[in-house]
């Protein structure tokens, strides 16, 4: 019987593992099907994590985290969790090989996956000029021109953010209207540094060994426009990795919103007692490493209080 099961081994899960074990829980296992670290390990350069200076990749940043957690007793089970369920006060973790383990509490932090737009070169140049995070990578294009793909709130908000850093932002959208808040649309249209490329879809991102050199887009008439930029940001949505919470009857173990994001309070508590969620899979997640780590710490402190009250 575990005191706490942590599902997911990114910044949120690792921090939760550090705080739960160092905080006194003795039987804590983190389930992560691969090597711990999360999405950030794919980033080629990190500049906005507090206290980190110099040239460092996402992999470099995350490398020491597992060892620090394991020093205090965190166990890493390299297994995929197929389902998390609860009966009474006991959670059951069902792994992909159908073996199970039980726990008094659980922290789920399986994150989300940026949806790919699907154009040629997107995967090839991901992390080398193609990005899904303006806050993470926008600074690398200070004073340069970039392209943004998307037409929702996130795409427009990120275009406005990039316009503060970059000399010009091409906003590429497949329609001539946006699926964003009217005020955000107004600000975008009034921003002189943002050029709208409407009724157009990306066809190909191209470049060389150094990274992206440009993006080709095709409009409704079939004309191809070649936009020379070193950076392309895609914001076409995120897929929440919430499959572990889906029960045999198709319902979710706890409350989620329309996007499948887990609803939590400021203590990372879900609607189900003993279950906590942290990181990119929760509502209103900033999708930053430092924020995910903070979530993990908060969830862990909440778990310690929950388990103490449950067992004493």
What would you note in describing this structure?
The radius of gyration is 21 Å and the shape is elongated. With 312 residues, the chain is an alpha/beta fold. It has a five-stranded parallel sheet with strand order 3-2-1-7-18, with helices on one face. The protein is built from seven helices and 18 strands. α1 (11-22) packs parallel to α3, α1 (11-22) runs parallel beside α7 (289-311) and α5 (153-163) packs parallel to α6 (182-190).
Features:
312 residues; alpha/beta; five-stranded parallel beta sheet; 18 strands
Task: Give a short overview.
By secondary structure, the protein is of the alpha/beta class.
Topology of this protein?
Elements: E1 4-7, H1 11-22, E2 28-31, H2 58-62, H3 65-71, E3 75-77, E4 81-87, E5 90-95, E6 100-103, E7 106-108, E8 112-114, E9 130-131, H4 134-137, E10 145-149, H5 153-163, E11 168-172, H6 182-190, E12 194-197, E13 200-208, E14 211-219, E15 224-227, E16 231-234, E17 238-240, E18 275-277, H7 289-311
Helix pairs in contact: 1-3, 1-7, 5-6
């Amino acid at each position: 019987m575990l005191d706490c099961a942590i599902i997911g081994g990114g910044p949120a899960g690792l921090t939760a593992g550090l705080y739960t074990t160092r905080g006194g829980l003795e039987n804590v296992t983190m389930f992560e099907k691969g090597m711990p670290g999360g999405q950030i390990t794919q980033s080629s350069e990190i500049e906005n994590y507090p206290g980190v200076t110099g040239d460092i990749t996402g992999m470099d940043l995350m490398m020491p985290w597992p060892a620090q957690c394991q020093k205090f007793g965190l166990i890493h089970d390299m297994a995929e969790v197929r389902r998390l369920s609860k009966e009474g006060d006991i959670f059951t973790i069902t792994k992909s090989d159908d073996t199970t383990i039980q726990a008094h509490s659980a922290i789920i932090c399986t994150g989300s996956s940026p949806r790919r737009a699907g154009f040629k070169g997107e995967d090839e140049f991901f992390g080398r000029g193609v990005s899904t995070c303006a806050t993470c990578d926008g600074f690398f294009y200070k004073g340069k021109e970039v392209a943004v793909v998307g037409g929702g709130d996130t795409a427009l908000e990120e275009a406005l953010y990039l316009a503060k850093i970059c000399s010009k932002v091409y906003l590429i959208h497949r329609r001539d209207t946006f699926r964003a808040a009217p005020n955000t649309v107004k600000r975008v249209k009034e921003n002189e540094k943002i050029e709208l490329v409407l009724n157009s879809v990306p066809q190909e991102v191209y470049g060389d060994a150094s990274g992206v050199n440009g993006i080709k887009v095709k409009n409704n008439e079939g004309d191809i426009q070649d936009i020379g930029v070193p950076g392309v940001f895609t914001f076409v949505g995120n897929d929440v990795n919430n499959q572990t919470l889906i029960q045999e009857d198709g319902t979710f173990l706890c409350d989620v919103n329309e996007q499948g994001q887990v609803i939590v309070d400021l203590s990372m508590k879900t609607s189900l007692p003993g279950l906590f969620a942290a990181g990119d899979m929760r509502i209103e997640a900033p999708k930053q490493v430092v924020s995910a780590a903070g979530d993990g710490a908060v969830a862990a402190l909440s778990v310690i209080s929950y388990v103490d009250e449950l067992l004493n």
